[in-house]
Design goal:
Layout lengths: L2 H17 L2 H19 L12 H24 L4 H6 L2 H6 L4 H31 L5 H31 L3 H29 L7 H6 L4 H10 L3 H7 L12 H23 L2
Helix pairs in contact: 1-6, 2-3, 2-6, 3-6, 3-7, 3-8, 3-10, 6-7, 6-12, 7-8, 7-10, 7-12, 10-12
Length: 271
């Protein structure tokens, strides 16, 4: 495997996203939604305006869990199947480039565009709110931004896997929406259903470890568990054991969610 073909494909993918203003559009979406949530996130409790960074991050976590996975899946679902439908995949593979190099180049280019838009959007919010942040608050907010990037990369890996598995763009888009629906909306409901059905006998460490099967839940634990007030607010103190409160361990789980789908995509993409 050579680095040069990977970088060439990645640069083309990134330029395409920059050319159609995709990065700017997503960054603006993150900025606007983040500012609205930061100021009006406490409206249900009768409070409007900036609150502590802990509650601001807690409010933004919900935004990220809904938006970033959807954006990542829509960004990458046609990475391979789109080339196949346009008839350009065989042409690309006729060049001096392996399937793995093509796959990694596609992923890296899309990942760079997604990372740039995420950091730009949330970074602009930090610049607008920096007067309300001390050093500790800034530390937590930077961690939140980095974990948001990891969440996006995890779902982008799933999108590339879908793109390799699907026969056409229509099926790929349907699978992408189904994956988003399952991980963001259905997964936690299933766990809660099992918890209620078993009368709480399923509770404990086993229940908490099952949360690792969902990258969105890993992201939630990573951002909320270290904030004491918010952990109590979310009820995680009684659900998530202390062993899962290690940011390094949760970061490693997120990295696994990035690597494993890509490895499966590479295995399935082989001739």
């Amino acid at each position: 495997m050579e680095i040069s073909p990977i970088l060439t494909v990645a640069a083309k993918e990134f330029r395409d996203r920059m050319r159609n203003r995709w990065v700017l559009a997503v960054a603006l979406v993150f900025t606007v939604f983040s500012l609205v949530i930061a100021y009006f996130g406490g409206a249900q409790q009768g409070a409007v305006g900036l609150r502590s960074i802990e509650f601001t991050i807690a409010s933004l976590v919900s935004l990220v869990i809904y938006l970033i996975p959807l954006i990542a899946l829509l960004l990458g679902f046609d990475a391979i199947v789109g080339e196949r439908e346009r008839g350009s995949l065989d042409l690309l593979l006729a060049l001096p480039i392996t399937r793995l190099e093509l796959l990694l180049g596609k992923y890296l280019g899309l990942a760079l565009a997604l990372t740039l838009s995420t950091l730009a959007g949330f970074g602009l919010v930090a610049m607008l709110l920096w007067r309300h942040m001390n050093a500790n608050a800034l530390f937590h907010y930077v961690g939140f931004m980095l974990s948001s990037v990891l969440l996006g990369l995890a779902f982008l890996s799933l999108a590339v896997l879908i793109s390799v598995l699907a026969r056409d763009r229509t099926r790929a888009s349907g699978l992408a929406i189904a994956v988003w629906f399952f991980f963001v909306l259905v997964f936690d409901l299933l766990l809660l259903g099992v918890l209620v059905t078993t009368g709480g006998r399923f509770a404990g460490d086993a229940f908490a470890w099952l949360l690792l099967l969902n990258p969105a839940d890993v992201f939630r634990i990573l951002n909320v568990f270290s904030l004491e007030d918010v952990r109590t607010l979310y009820g995680l103190a009684s659900v998530v054991p202390a062993s899962l409160g290690n940011p390094a361990a949760m970061g490693a789980v997120m990295l696994a969610w990035i690597v494993v789908p890509l490895a499966l995509a590479n295995w399935r993409f082989k001739p």
